[in-house]
Every structure is written in C-alpha cells, then in structure tokens.
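Table 4 source record.
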Amino acid sequence: MTKLSQPIGFLVVIFVLLSCHLTNAQLNKQEAQALIGRVIPQKAQFFVVESLESTAPKDLFEIESKNQKIILRGNNGVAVASALYYYLTEYCHCQITWNGVNLDLPVKLPQIPTKIAKKTPYQYRYYLNYCTFNYSMSWWNWERWQKEIDWMAMHGINMPLAITGEEYTWREVYNEMGFSDNDLKDFFSGPAYFSWFWMGNLDGWGGPLPVSWMKSHKDLQVKIVQRERALGMKPVLPAFTGHVPAAFKKKYPNAKLKATNWTNGFGDTYILDSEDPLFAELGKKFINKQTKLFGSDHLYSADTFNENEPPTDEPAYLSKLSARIYEGMRQADPDAVWVMQGWLFYSDRKFWKAPQIEALLSAVPNDKMLLLDLATEIEPVWKRTHAFYGKPWIWNMLNNFGGNVNLFGRMDGVASGPALALNDPNSKNLQGIGLTMEAIEQNPVIYELMMQHTWQTTPVDLNEWLVKYAKNRYKTDDKSLVEAWQVLRQTVYNGKDIRDGAESIITGRPTFDSTTVWTKTKLNYKPKDLLPAWDLFVEASKKGIDSDGFQYDLVDITRQVLANHALVLQKKWKNAYKEKNEVQFKKDAQAFIDLIADMDELLATRKDFMLGPWISSARSWGSTPAEKALYEQNARDLITLWGDANNPLHEYSNRQWSGLLNDFYKPRWQQFFVELNKSLAENREPNLKTFDANIRTWEWNWVKTQKNFPTTTKGNSHQVALKMYKKYRNEL
C-alpha cells in the first residue's frame, strides 16, 4: 500500500477500504440496471438489482422472485450481469453470442421457485489477447465496445486487457521529453498493427498514424475503462517493456539500445536496456501519464521478448531483467501487479527451459506477478513449470489464431480442463480462468462453454450442456439438432491432431500443393464424417427452424463443407493438368472457381461473413480522404498480405468472407489457371516463378485499391444453403 503520513488508526481504516476496493469492487446499482436496460429493454422493469455483501475476493450472486419481480443480487456489476445471464439461459432459454442472439423472452417471466446462490471459485476471469485488438477490434466504435463490455459482464469477465489509446499516452510522454511528432512518425504503426507495435515487433508499418486517431482513441479508452470499472471489472493496462523509437538514438546518444528483429519481414526495432537509468525513468513517466489519463487498478501487462529471443539464456541476466522491469512499475505504482503472458514459454520452448523460466519469474514477489497460461487447452505450460513456480496464474483458452474462419475447438478438453486443474493439488496457485483468443466472432459454442466454468468447480457434462445450448440457441427442443451437435463434437470440435482450425486451400496463394505455410488444410476428422451434421441442419431448416443462431450455424456448417470440398476439386484439376488433359482441366478448374463464387453467395447472407463491414468501419474513422484511404489499406493488408508484397506472414489472417472470396481469392486463382492453360496449349512447363512475382504485385495493388463492398446482406440463408446442398451433396 502507498505510505500515508497519517495517524496509525486512520491508516488502518484506509488500508481496509483500499483492500476492499482492490479485491472486491462495490456494486453500482445504476450501472447494473442500465446494462439490463440495454440487453432486454422490453422487460427491464421486471428486474430489481440489490447489493450482496462479500468480504471475500471472489464474486457471488443470488436470484430470487418477489412480488412478480426477479431480484438480481451481486457484490458488483459483473456478478449482477452474470445473474441476469444465468436467469436468461436457465429459465428463459435465451442466448447472447457474437454470432446469433436469441432474446425471445416469454410474455410472462418465469418465477424462481427457490433462491439461487452462486459463488465463483476463480478470483480472476481474464479476457483478451493483444492480437484481438487488431484481428477483431481494429475499427470498433463505442457502440460496438459497449456491446462487448455487456457480453463480458454477463459471461463473468472481471479482468479485461485494456490497451486502446496506448499510442496517445506514448505521444504525450515523448512530446514532454522533447520528441516532436516528426521524430515519432516512423515509430507509431497504422491502426491495424498496434498489437505488434505494442509488443515491440514492428515500428511504423501501416502509418504514419494521424494525430486525430490518437485523440479519438484516447477518448474511446476513457469510455471503455470507465464502463468496465463501473461494472466492477479491473482493467489490465500496459506498462513499459523497453521498446523505444529509433529517434531515441539521436536524443540520447549514450543510451544503451539493442536492435532486435521479429524476423517477419519488418525492420529492426529498438529496445532500451533495462540496466540503463532511463529505463526506470521512462517506465515511471509512462505509468504516471497513463494513470492521469485513464486511472489504474494496479494491474499492468508487460511482455518481454514476445517472439524475440533474449541476448543470452544466462539465468542471472534474465532474473535481473525481470526485477528491473517490475521495479520500473513499482516506482510509479507501489501496488503494481505485473500481468505476464506465458506465450513465450510455449512459442520458444527451446530457449525457455526450466532454469530460464524460473529465473525470469523468481525475481518478482509472488503477490506482485500474475501469469497467463495463454493456451492451456493446447499445451498446459503450468504442468512443466511447477505451476509457474508458485506464482498465481490463470487457465486460458486461446482457440483461434489470426481470425481465420473455421469450425474448430477442443470441446471435451475445454469442458473438463479448468475444473481438473482447479482440483489438482499440483496446480498450486491457480486463481482464474480466461479467454485469450487472437480473434473473436467465430465458434461461439466454444466460448459459451469455456465461461460456463465461472460459476462451477466440476467439469461440464457435455451431454447435458449441449441439449441446453441447442434449445437456447434454436428456440426448439428438436432432438435432431442435439444429434447434429454430437456429430460436430466428434468432428470439427474434437480438438485432435492439429493445433488450430484448418483452412481451405481456396485462401492460399495459388499452388499445386495441398497446403501452404499459413493455409493449413489438415483436418482433425474425415470430411465425410461432417456430412451428417449438414444433413440434419438442412432438414431442420426445411422444418422452419429460423433463429438467428440457427441461420449462422447453417451457413457456417455449409461453408465448412464447401471449404473442405475445395481440396477434392484441387486434386481433380491437378491430376487433369498432370495428364495434360486440357478439356478435363478446364472443366475441373472452372468447378473450383464456381465453388469460390458459391461460397461467396452463401456468406453474403450473413453479416458475420462479409468484407464490407470491415472495410466500411475502417474508413469511418477517417476525417479526411487521405485518412480513409490509409485505414482502408490497413484493413485490406492485415487480412491478406499482412505486410508488404513479400511478407512471409501473407494469409496468416486469411478470412473466408463474402467480397474477399470474389474480389481477391477468385481472381487470384483465375490468373493461375490462365498460366496453366497457356502452358498446356504451348506444351511447356508453367512459369511459376514469373507467376509468383506477378501475383505478389497484383496482391499489393489490391491492398492499395479503394472500393466499396456491400455492408448489408444479400439473399436468404436458408434458401442459399439449400441451393448449395442440392448442388453439392450427391457429389460429396
């Protein structure tokens, strides 16, 4: 606690009050009631919010019926919002996801026969990954953020990463240190690349960043953290890890700087050595400025060497490094707690062996550091680090990389993993669960399932849970849809063999191969095994089942079947080409092109799968034509080339979206087929080297183009899915 020059008795009172604030935010009834009004405005008057006292650091809620009203009690807004969602899902059979909402409430709200009381076993429920802020959230306005914060609260999230507006803070700090905006123009990245700029991987790419952006997003961050805190959340804000502008060399010629490179096609970035006195000074300046702008809950995210290797694996060096980073936080905020992503221990396990991990962690007091096991459902790092050597830690599910569109998840593992760890004595100081996906707005079932753990200590029984999930999502007890979900559980959601969801060969740069670097087509099931789920959804569609969630799932399953089928068609035209059968090759190549167009038509029926809203929302932030053009280029680049024409990350963030399929992937393949047709006609080998060079130029020109894409849906999901079913089902 901060020292206060006051009498001891007064100090004790203040200490108690501060402790309560740090562990258990008080209920703001007005904010909780406002959330109910936003979520269910037509029924909000039937809900009463009451405070529930708690001296423990773990949230709790109660639900009770009184005088035809539903009483929601909680120790803070998150607890009340969780109580609301519990009531909506368990008693009204409703559901709120990114991809499908069912709020078809009964005319008369169901009464609660006996009081319900829930207490979470997890002090922390963490949310977000640095990458989420760009792969999904790059262009969000306050309206979209408000919806997300409500979703977070209803799903029990109380510890969100909050890094919007960080660039404004740094501009203020550097301006006060004598750096001009011109000195910083090659430092700040474009808006689609902040995640990697913040983590020290790149400078300047996608910029120069307009000052208008910095100012608007400072204002946005103020709204975000105010709302999160009003609901009882404790936002995790950034801290300094050493990344400084190249201009630092001129301003401070004696500063100890190290050039480092992410090795992904970008220039060097510069890291200030933690031994340099400027390191602690700069860290303190940043936190002080940030606190002045956005307040603080004493939780700070700082990730050293994110996909960058340290200069030495000497444990003593690593220990001193982390001690100095923490000291920089502590000097600015004596109550600082360092929240560290454990991704480096997963992504570079050759370097991070037991002595190195222990050295990095042990230099910071246990109660001043919190570890995020970032992809526990893939590889539980806690199991090979003695549960992070006694540090408090959080069990997180990552699930999605790059915002790629696919049906994927480790359903059975997620249903059991957190509870098994919670009840395992070897997990030691496990204090939370969380969601750390690189992108959201896909596979809603997996995220609903994961957050089911917030209020229970035992594994989720999937056989029971899927029945409830289907009923809430589709507004029906139709058993065939539960049967379909069991098929999905055993296929796309079985989590076997592959790290993350497979892609369709369609999204890869044209090739004869069945896979590319960032278009991985290996499935964790046989494609034919998914077909029964498609059959059942199509039959349910014919019965008239038509909820928002059903429409999304019908389209998504149809999309996945067609995406898988692309590999079969590729094999056909490849074989015809090898056999020099011109007629058959043209026929099979056209079938491949037609499939892409069919997928585009299908996906145009759902906003979730459209390029237009992504581009439109990017342009909406621009206050001048030049700014709009810059933001559109950022938006196009991230989901295609990622960087420049020769960037090795091209397709890492590929999307199966209407608009992108017809305007980018299809013409790219068409150009490939033109070259192959010519080579057959001229009886020569295809000039793939020239094609590759030409297609990179074409892709880069596409990135720099400005064009409007539809922002409203076209067609009926049921009708188009049925059209695809009739066309492809027998062939499959």
